[in-house]
Each structure stands twice: as C-alpha cells, then as structure tokens.
Design brief:
With 169 residues, this protein is of the alpha+beta class. The chain has an eight-stranded antiparallel β-sheet. It has five helices and eight strands, in the order ββααββββββααα. A hairpin with a 2-residue loop joins β7 and β8 (122-134).
C-alpha cells in the first residue's frame, strides 16, 4: 500500500502484518519502515524527536505525553497514543544519530526507532516501528488504515517542522 502523499519527499517501504488467533486474545503484529531526506541538520531533526512533551502537537495519534525526569537513555515517560496510555522507556539515545523507545500497556506495545544519517542537503531519517496489539484495540479506537498512515504522517510532519523557516530564524 502506497501512502497517498509519498511523493512529498517521504518514501514508504512496507507494512507487514502478522496475526495470531489465541482463544482469548487475538493479536496482530505490524512492522513499518519509512524514510525521508530532511533539509535540516541532524541536530535540528533530533531535537524534535527527543522533545517528547511536544509530540501531541505533531505526532498523529499522540494525545498526551508526560516526561517526569527529562529524556535520556533509560528515562521513563508516559504517552497516550490511539487512546491507550503507554508506559515507555528510552532504549536508544545516541545524540543526533539515533533515538528509540519501547512503550507498553495491557493492550498494546510499541517499539519505535529513528536513525539519522547526515547527507546532502541535510539528514536522511530512517524510521522503524513495530506494534503488537489486541486487534480489538485497533477496531475500537482507529481504523487500521489510519494507524498505518500515522507512521508516514509522522515523517512528513517531522520534515515540515525541521525545515520550517520559523525555526531557522
């Protein structure tokens, strides 16, 4: 499935979905991969990724973010995404080059990682995401297609924010 706005500087590799049918809890696992070249230095791109309290302003599906002690390797934070509150921890934190986290609740678990590679004219961003959820959570809160496109929209919005003229001033 091709994202409808893939031609806006963001490429889409794939989304793979696997389902299991447990008697009590049907689960689905999705892995997503997207890439973008952002005309901004890695430092600027990275600053948006690690500004977790601002995620509700630009990351689709994130409604709330609480970071009690700042973002660094091993830091805990909470976010509400797709209507589910996740307890999360920063698992990868290499300044200006890699940021990753794992979040979980009873109904949903997410792993997300961002790799930033300096290239002309700025930064290549490689985003990977794996979600494992109860299929009922997906159906209750959002159409599956919306969640699929949210990963791609995050890259588009990151590109727009990092390339913003206001930020460069």
């Amino acid at each position: 499935m091709l994202h409808p706005r893939a031609g806006n500087g963001v490429s889409w590799a794939r989304r793979d979905t696997y389902q299991t049918r447990d008697v009590t809890q049907p689960r689905a696992e999705s892995s997503m991969h997207g890439e973008a070249v952002i005309e901004a230095p890695p430092e600027r791109v990275y600053s948006h990724l690690v500004d977790v309290p601002s995620w509700p302003d630009w990351v689709p599906g994130v409604r709330r973010a609480r970071v009690p002690s700042g973002i660094r390797l091993g830091a805990a934070f909470e976010i509400e995404v797709y209507g589910v509150r996740l307890e999360a921890v920063v698992t990868e934190y290499e300044q200006y080059s890699r940021f990753g986290w794992i979040g979980s609740s009873v109904d949903l678990s997410i792993y997300q990682a961002w790799l930033l590679v300096p290239v002309a004219p700025g930064t290549q961003v490689i985003a990977k995401k794996v979600e494992r959820e109860l299929t009922t959570v997906l159906m209750r809160n959002s159409p599956a297609e919306e969640i699929y496109y949210a990963h791609q929209d995050t890259l588009l919005r990151l590109k727009q924010r990092a390339e913003s003229v206001d930020e460069q001033a």
